[in-house]
Every structure is written in structure tokens, then in C-alpha cells.
Sequence to fold (456 residues):
Amino acid sequence: MNVKLLQKYNKPGPRYTSYPPATFFHDGINVESYQDMLVQSNHQQPENISLYIHIPFCRQLCYFCGCNTTCYPGDELVSRYIDALIKEIHSVSGLLDTDRPLTQIHWGGGTPNSIDLSFVEKVMKELLSIYKPVAKAEIAMECNPAYLEPEHIDQLAAMGFNRLSLGIQDFNEEVLKLVNRRPSKYPVEELIARMKANKMDGVNIDLIYGLPGQTPASFQNTIEKAIAISPDRLVTFSYAHVPWVKSAQMKLEEIGLPAPEEKLAMFETAYNLLTQNGYEAIGMDHYAKPGDELSVALKNKKLHRNFQGYCTQETTGQVYGFGATSISQLQGGYYQNIKSHKKYIEAIEQNGFATEKGYELTREDEIRRTVINQIMCNGFLDFDALAKELDTGVAQLKTITGYNPEKLKPFADDGLLQIDGNCIQLLQNGFLVVRNIAMEFDSLLSQGKGQYSKTV
Ligand SMILES: C[S@@+](CC[C@H](N)C(=O)[O-])C[C@H]1O[C@@H](n2cnc3c(N)ncnc32)[C@H](O)[C@@H]1O
Ligand code: SF4
Fold:
């Protein structure tokens, strides 16, 4: 893939971590809608339960951050937040069939390891007393290595955690300084060795390209270092610049962001180096070793995608979110909690739920969601097979997705996909512009809700 081609397709678009995107969530959805859907979700597929716990606190705020988080508000408020989480867990669990298999618990944020691990233990004890994890359940936490002690890894392993993700962002300390972030407190190799010693089988690292101070050459060093460390998975996020949502990002404009062609060259360097050194590209930004379940799922056309990124449905079922700003991702819709952690605590203390907005899917939305997931995850679409699976006609499927082969012609001419009758197959480079291709099947997009970051 050459940089010119990437540039041609580099325009604003959704990341499709949900369909429809979160910009379509509205406040017509409330606590009662969520309670109804919780009950219904017991009879919907997938049957397996995933739990997402959001910790909206960080010890220091990075200027680039696009996540929902705030500066650590002190132990007293955090303790109240943890009690609210536990109360919400009980409210939701009261409406769920807790005999359904639990396949995943994911702690995200913010920074889950910014709080004392005794709080994490308290919540985990509660969860594990209610739900029944399957033997290979994935129990994961996103960690900031600036605050991760080797002993924390032992403690997390003792609580059942078997997958940790380390937010490295860049190994270059000058870059980290510019974006108000501290480097890992311990050598990352040491942290990973400790995870392996604790029999954790999933080690992921997050990197970002497109930050001030980064150049294609400096980012190449970071990728080489990452390859030497050899995590099971690696994510190279394209820095999403959305200062209209996150005003702190304006600081990065003042410092100076790399030019678009430099950013694309960083992407290209990372892609080439990783795929030449034992990693398989999963979608646009994830990389995994060939034996990893994401690589296997991609080969078997069984990959899925949600707000946490690429996943498989064996591991990720219907997702029940807890905590401020968390999103439950159920078969029938999305339900998001209040963003402010203080207002979340008050709502939970008053009535046990804190749903603020969301989106319930129509049958047409469900069809578009399936088609867009197929494109985003598996890079393949067979209208005949899908029409059968969705119990509809091929013509209807095409109308609902606004399908028009003419719109795909530029991608075909650029060698990014092939159309063969009713089948569309992305070619290797097609995954690099997969968001743009998915947009051609999104007939809701023209309703133009919200602004998006650029696709590359
Ligand atoms: C919740 S954080 C991970 C845990 C921890 N807070 C940390 O930073 O290490 C999730 C990830 O989102 C990515 N991220 C945050 N802001 C971003 C942005 N504006 N554009 C792209 N990726 C971003 C970072 O790579 C980060 O590791
Ligand atoms: S990137 Fe991570 S540590 Fe930095 S502010 Fe965002 S959530 Fe916090």
C-alpha cells in the first residue's frame, strides 16, 4: 500500500466499534428501557455474558486522551464509586439469568490500576460470587505501566486476571513528555516476564501514532522495540484528533502534530515491520501472533468487534457495562450510563441504575450491523448466504444497506477489493481502508449525526 493511496481515502468516518456509532445514541432511552432489555437479553443470542467495568480515573491526564476519564478524585470518592459499582452490579444481576455462562470480565477506563487493588478485589469477589465463569474465561485489565508494580501483577493473577494490556503509547520518553505522560516505571520486559511467570497467557500492548514529536523514524524504533518484547497482541491506534469533544487535545495542536503524510508513513512502517516479523494484521489496527484466538477467528471468518476493539464471540458475549459512562452492548441495543462519575454515584445511590442514553436497534439496523461487522471483521460479504442467515431476500438486503456496486468501483480499481456476483472480498490492502469500505454499506450515515476522526 503506498502512502498516496492511503491519503486518498483518509477522510472522517466512524470506527464502527458499534453499529450504529455512539453519535446516534439519544436520551429517549432511560432506566426503564434498560431494565426491559436486560430481561429480554436473557433469551437472546449470544447467550454468554461479558462484564465491562469502567474506572474513570487517571493519576495524570495525557493531552491526547480520547477516553472518558478524570483526574483521581481522592480515596473517599473512589471508595463511594466502588460501593456504587457494587450496588449497580446487584441491580443488574437481579434481572439477569446468572446461570448463563460468563466468558469475560474486562476492566477498562481511564486507568483501572490507578485505584488501590483492594478496591478491585472487592468488586471481583462480588462478581465471582454472582456469576459462573467458564474454565477459560478471559479476565482482563487495561493498565498504565507508569503505576504498575511487579507485585501488582501477582495480586491481579491471584484475583483471576489472565490478560493484561499495557498502555505503552510510545517507548520514546521525549514523545511521552510532550503529551504529559510518564513512561513505564519498570522495564516492560520485566513486567511481561512477571505476567508469564504468573501463567497469564494474554499480553497486549497499545501504541499510538500521530503524536507530537513522533517521526516515521522514531516510531520505527518504537515498533522494533515492541517486536523485541514480543507481546501476544499489539494495537497501533491512529491518534484520533477530536478537540471538539476533548479540548485538552488543543495543546497538541499548539505543540505541533505530524503532517498527514508523516502519520501515514508511521502507519505503513508499523504495518510492514509487524507483518514481516511474525504478526498478522487483524482489521485496521490490531496485530496478533498466528496462534492467537483473534488470528484463528479471522481465518475462520468468525471475528467480531465491539467498543473494546476486535474480539471473538466465544469470548465476548452480550456485554453488560458497569460504572460511569460505561456502555452495555446487547443484542437489542446499546445503553450508556451517565458520564460524570459524581452524578453516576448519586443516581446509583438513589435508585440502583444510571442509564442516560442509548439506542435500540430496528430490524433494519440489525441487518446493517451484521453486514458492517462482516466487512469490518472478516473482509468478506456473501449476499446470498447472509440473506439466508438473516431470513430476508438479497434484494431487500441490498436496499437496506444502500448497496451500489458503482460506489465500490474506486476500491476495486485500486486493488482493494474484488466483486464476484453477490460476493465481495477485501484484498490484503483493503483492510487498511476498511472503515471507508464499511461506510458504503451504512445508509444511516447520510443522516450525519456527529463528527468523526479521520479513517487512517
Ligand atoms: C483506557 S486507555 C488504556 C489504559 C491506560 N489508561 C493507559 O493509558 O495506559 C485505552 C487506550 O486508548 C488509546 N487512546 C487514548 N486516546 C486516544 C486517541 N485520542 N486516539 C487514539 N487512541 C487513543 C491509548 O492507546 C490507550 O492505551
Ligand atoms: S490515555 Fe490512559 S492514562 Fe492517559 S488520560 Fe487516557 S485513560 Fe488516562
Observations:
- The mean pLDDT is 93.
- The chain has 17 helices and 19 strands.
- Residues 58, 61-62, 65, 67, 69, 109-111, 144, 167 surround iron/sulfur cluster (ligand 2) (CB under 6 Å).
